Amino acid sequence: MTTDSHLAIPEEHNPLASMPHDTHGGISNPVLGMLLFITSEVMFFGGLFAAYFSIRASAAQWPPNNPQTNEPFHLQVLPIVSTDGIISVSFVLIATILLVLSSFSCQYAVWKIRSDDRTRFLRAMAVTIALGIVFLLMQVTDYAILGSEGLTLSSGTYGTTYYTLTGFHGAHVFGGVIMLAVVLYRGMVGQFSSKHYDAVEGASLYWHFVDVVWILLFSLLYLLPGKTPTT
Amino acid sequence: MSSSPRSRSSQTAIFALAIGAAIIGLSLILLYFGVNVLNAGGQFVSGLYPPIAVTAEGAKIRDLYTVVFIIAVVIFLLVEGLIILSVIRYRRKPTDTELPPQIHGNNIAEFVWTIVPTILVIFMFIVSWQTLNAVDVSSPTAQTKIRAVAGQFQWQFEYLAEDGTTVLYTENIPLVSAGGGMMVPAGRTVQLQLFVSPKDVIHAFYVPQFLFKRDVVPGRTTAFDFTVDAADAGQTFRGQCAELCGVGHYTMLFEVKALTGEEFDTWLAGKVAQANATPSPAPSGAPGQSGAPGASGGPGASGGPAPSGGGETLQISAQNIAYEQSSLTTKAGAPFHIEFDNKDAGTPHNVAIHKDSTTGQEVFRGEIFPGVAIKTYDVPALDAGNYVFECTVHPSMTGTLTVQ
Amino acid sequence: MATTTLTPVATRSRSALYAWLTTTDHKKIGILYVINSFIFFFIGGLLALGVRTELAQPGLQFVTAAAYNEMFTMHATFMIFLFVIPMLAGFGNYIVPLQIGAPDMAFPRINALSFWMLPLGGILLLLSFVTGGSAAAGWTSYAPLSEDRALAATGTGQDLWIVALVLIGTSSILGAINFLVTMFKMRAPGMTLFRMPIMVWTVLVTSVLVLMATPVITSALIMLFIDRNYGGAFFDPSRGGDAILYQNIFWFYSHPAVYVMVLPAMGMVSEILPVFSRKPLFGYKAFIFATAAIGALGFSVWAHHMFTTGAVYLPFFSIMTFLIAVPTGVKMFNWVFTMWGGQIMLKTPLLFALGFLSMFLIGGINGAFSASVPVDFALHDTYWVVAHLHYVLFGGSVFGIMGGFYYWFPKMTGRMMNETVGKTQFVLMFIGFNLTFFPMHELGLLGMPRRIADYSSTAGWNDLNLLATFGGFTIAASMGLFLWNVFLSLRSGAVAGDDPWEANTLEWATTSPPPAYNFDHLPEIRSERPVFDARHGRAVVDH
């Protein structure tokens, strides 16, 4: 139990304020904490990616056949000109571009708060959040389309890995959007300045991480050529 | 600055007691395991040694065990001795008021006890690797090819033709004492393939006297070779599933019996002729799927489709490697019937009746058959008294039968 | 995140219980960790007694085979995830900020959050006993057995197990982040990295292991959950999945987890031995490098749990497993030569530390048998392995934890523990431990597989099993003595004072128990033994 003389100090009070300590300059506690958290997230996705590669490597054919059509599952990527001349633009490519753009707008927001430009910081943050929400909506739509084509979580290893990988990425985007929304709110009530923006920095790092994971996922699921059975 | 004087006399007595008791305890344990060291057939036998190997591969593993064991004992005695010696020698005396020399370390010592253990473990790795290459092999040229098929919770043994795929004969009963078991020709190299249905779980084929086990993994087939020493023909070795596979894990016993080469050939030829004569057993594959009756049955089997003659009919059913009835009663001096409902898909059971206890005289043994199926046994008249019924395949399945 | 408003003093007069439940003080949280861990230690211990009682004789006398499988599964789950790992994290929580001269952990509220996830996870696991049976596929929960199968883990127990483990894992990850930021950012002036006590170093390496390994098992558990509940096919061989994949991912975490469970205990022993030998730790830097080497090698040996699958590259994992013995051996020699030439005071903490040295030695040596692949073919999944892991986790971790408890109890409570009861407890525990687990070596060599509910009376395993059961109850008796000692010492133990052991590290430079922000003033930090320096002056250090 504490003695009376210490009771006056509120428990939420930052204990660092009253004690000497080696700050070692440089990185702040919340940003270091976020970097370490991202390390653990990298390992989490590492586990999922390892599972994907392992299953893919042991499969004779990838993607496997869709039982509904007896054709291999196909994830459409690039804008293609179909035979009747109508350009059908790939959904997922747009989503990818939007998410990459949001990473830039997020970093722009960090730069702006560093130079105390609060208005541009808030605007850039709002744009980032909007792009994140659009990405999520597009992913939900994409799920609906793929589901109607017969690709579901329970349709074998292909569906299981596809939905698990993209689903957990989507959950992280959702978490990131929440995090950014809190940052935006705190920015609107004026809690950030060029001297105090650790939370902005942390949220931004997280958002970049989510973006990088998506680029990896996109390359893996959409761009990496499949394999056909050698008969 | 320095320590204040402490009252040590009472603590010393307790300490002496503590250390004394600990040392006595440890010595007793070592004594217990040390005394059964004896020389059997020129081989070292001890509680800290694996059983004497009955295969050529197992003997190599046992030799390797000796190498590791000697190194382990030397290191153990050295370090444990140093610990005990330093505690005895450097106990604080009442006259020790000054601090001992404050030594922070010694780089040469650190170097020595990094390099020496490194050399030691690399040596152990090299001898292990050499042994590994000799014992973990599977050659297509093996004369005898057998496939062990695991499933929840049973073993089947399929005897294969030269090509390694055609099944000549399937043995559904895993225990020699139950009229089945895995027969192997002593002195010949046997290739053992391991198989389990992809819908089943992981099991492991383990015979302690082979000093070897190998997991049976759904979706993968593995194989290894072994050669039972010719001198061990006629012996039976117990085996057991070694990978947790569910509630019946502990019941997954099997036995391996070594026959001489000629005995084996005769035995297999007889079984193949028998199998060809009767339109039986289910082909290899998922054991859980096969509902067809498998083995030709144990001695004393008298299964029939319907009860013949009069007499009482007892109902016994088995599910999840257990009888659903724990005690039954019937009349003395009159034949009766047992309607046995085996509800375990693919798992062979039967009902055998022993006088007094499971080790008592066997007075009746019903046919062993895999589920899901119902058979009716005709049981001869029994004298009044206490009996137990058990499954010959799964001795853990028991119940009592009172005849009055 | 939210703004901090100072509440009026009047509403702050909370009850003591409320203060404990809402605390963000690392010392109180540390004590909560310790208490919570001991509660689950006793639950896990009761399950172990159940297992030993059933195995005392051949035949199923007390429980069904299904209940037996639940018992050993939950015994291991409680002991690993809710006793050893959180207990060491709890000691770390209490000790690390004190030893580096910090006022608290870097993120006090996250610290409280990581603690409260543990009892929540524990309650979920306990709930599974009343919702149709707990998980019963072993603490490893190998797929496909742990997937929805006939005669296996069919109930909600396995799902609750997965959820609880994900919770507990998240708690560990948050704790690890907290430790690392605290160590990197909040050391007192003069406390350079190479002046941090070994206890802090072991927690540092442990935190890196947790940070890198725990998320991986989280991914495996989530895949298992998807397989079980949403028709996934990750580990289902009949639908293109891979059963061995689960084992690879599982052991990628669970082997480093072994070091998570033993490194901080090594750290505790490394604190106790110098103090009670009145000498500095022999080879301080070598010790740090050895700890880091164990951590690094720990990530490359996972498949030595899978030698008998025949599906891993045996020579690589064999040589790495052998090599991990080298840094462990370096530590062992450093400990011995810390005592060599000292003035050894045989107090209870040192007795337990000696128990650690002599028993962990056995656990390390019989690990070399399993590293040798062909020998492992004979020993894997038998009672030999059960003996080995208990010599590491009980002979190692539990003896270390007990030593640490006796060593730091005066700091945590301000009172000394009773030496007589403590020494008696040690003797009983030491004997009981060896009676329980040494016979298991022979049982394994004789061919008794792990995790079997029953065995044949003709297999020749009867006497050894009875002996092990007797030993198990001896351990239980020693734990009874321990509880009595805690009760006795809390009520009427001698007042400890700031530094009852004449110790070396910073936690002994403040009051017992320390004030809310730990230090009113700090001694000068010029070596890894600041309190020793303050007591004896610099001259002694430069021998």
Helix-strand layout with pairing:
The complex is a heterotrimer of chains A (231), B (404) and C (543).
Chain A: H1 4-7, H2 29-58, E1 65-66, E2 71-72, E3 80-81, E4 87-88, H3 91-114, H4 118-148, H5 156-188, H6 198-223
Helix pairs in contact in A: 2-5, 2-6, 3-4, 3-6, 4-5, 5-6
Chain B: H1 9-34, E1 38-40, E2 43-45, H2 56-89, H3 107-135, E3 144-151, E4 154-160, E5 167-171, E6 182-185, E7 189-196, E8 203-207, E9 212-216, E10 222-227, E11 236-241, E12 253-259, H4 261-277, E13 313-318, E14 327-330, E15 336-342, E16 348-349, E17 352-355, E18 362-365, E19 369-370, E20 373-379, E21 385-390, E22 398-403
Parallel strand pairs in B: 3-7, 6-12, 13-15, 14-22
Antiparallel strand pairs in B: 1-2, 3-4, 4-5, 7-10, 8-9, 8-11, 11-12, 15-20, 16-19, 17-18, 17-21, 21-22
Chain C: H1 16-21, H2 26-55, H3 65-99, H4 108-127, H5 156-185, H6 198-229, H7 243-277, H8 284-297, H9 314-323, H10 325-339, H11 348-371, H12 373-379, H13 383-413, H14 419-446, H15 462-492, H16 530-536
Provide a short characterization of the protein structure.
Chain B is of the alpha+beta class. Helix content of chain B is 26%, strand content 28%.
Could you please describe the fold and organization of this structure?
The complex is a heterotrimer of chains A (231), B (404) and C (543). With 231 residues, chain A is mainly α. Chain A has helices at 4-7, 29-58, 91-114, 118-148, 156-188, 198-223, and strands at residues 65-66, 71-72, 80-81, 87-88. In chain A, the strands form two sheets. A two-stranded antiparallel sheet of chain A has the order 1-2. In chain A, strands 3-4 form a two-stranded antiparallel sheet. In chain A, a hairpin with a 4-residue loop joins strand 1 and strand 2. Chain B has 404 residues and is α+β, with helices and mostly antiparallel strands. Chain B contains four helices and 22 strands. Chain B has a five-stranded mixed β-sheet with strand order 5-4-3-7-10. The radius of gyration of chain B is 29 Å and the shape is extended. Mean pLDDT of chain B is 80; it is low at 1-8, 35-41 and 280-307. Chain C has 16 helices and no strands. The longest helix of chain C has 35 residues, at 65-99. The model of chain C is unreliable at 1-11 (pLDDT under 50). Chains B and C meet through helix 1, helix 2, helix 3, strand 8 and strand 9 of B and helix 3, helix 7, helix 8, helix 9 and helix 10 of C.
